[in-house]
Amino acid sequence: MHGASCGFPSVQWEDSDSCRQQCQEIFQRYRLIHLRLQRPKMEPSTQRRQSLLLDFVSQSNISDHWTMESTTGSLELAKVALAGAQTEDGEN
Amino acid sequence: MHAIIIVLSYQSYRIDRVTSSLALSWHSFNTFPKEWYSSFVLEKDAATDFLSSMSSVDPDLLRIPLKDWHPTGTVWSFFGSNAESRPMAGKPEHVDQLRPGVITMHSQICGRKLWMLRPNAGAESWDKVMNVPMLSSERIEIACGEGDQLLIDTAAWYHATNIPGGTGFTWSIAQDFSHQNEADKEEGTVQIESVQLRISQQLCQLCLTPTNPPAGSPPGTCGCWCCGQERLKITLWRSFRLSSLLTQRFLKRNLAMQGTNPVHEAMRQFWQRRRLAICDEPKIKEARWIRFVLDVRVFSSTFKNGFLSQHSLALHVETYIYIII
Q: Which pTM was predicted?
């Protein structure tokens, strides 16, 4: 376990009791902790994750929960933007 | 015996600089936007369905690594894209008004997000003021990358986010957790509430306090204590200056009418030699000038709407009194 990006409560996560205990202590003290779970290669790919989100947004009835904290302003436009981002990434 | 006392005062004050930090702006959708940001929140069954659909994501990423914390059933999803080279502001600085003891775990599914944090000394989560972390800089920055978790008490930390330039698609999932002991769980006495009130306020560029504009003030007016005091001082100064100008006008008119009075004659000569003005440093050798200088530094703390603001205010006042007997 060692400090990560910012030198403040930030640790490289490993699935062990000692790590869990240390995280607990850091969080109790600072009410904040940054954990880096990064694996050598994350699966699935970014494009797959976008597709996962787009599928959920398209199929689910989340319009009641939609927050207006969006530069897109509406759910439909957010879907368009999401689909557009996916297309662009795919082309790249 | 006639006595005339002329009082000239000089006050120095800082001019407040207010900059709105409203972060989100409208974009045209004629083409796919290069920078955009959206979010939605799900509760209970909808949240469970959503997390179930994330089965292909590393389960560790969505699992809280701390003991005795239980999900409240609220899940947020923040996603967007920034293909521009400059950073894109995500959320303006704010604290969340959560039930005490509720924390949020942000899991960065893909892309990057930069967090800017500073402690909210007025939060209930800190046992004592002494326990509030002391930072070497105004804010700390935490860069969350793909596969990172950020566990944060969003009531105890002011937080703002941005999406670094060239990030492309970014997506994070936030879950609220409550620290619930076993007894509470068995008896079912604790009602989990997860009302997350987001406060989008402008940030004072001097004291970094997020506030709403004061009632009746034009948009963009900073509502923090120190800027309010500065505005009050400016108003008082203008009022004083107007009063002083009216007094000068009155005296000049009176002296013109009664030039035979020796006192008035002395005053008239004084006017002829020197024009009296607010910024006019008096240098008359035969006059009796008394100069009072007052330097005051006021320290204060205010606690309002969950924000603790600490200020020091410097006030410099110079007063000249001229006496003719």
A: 0.58
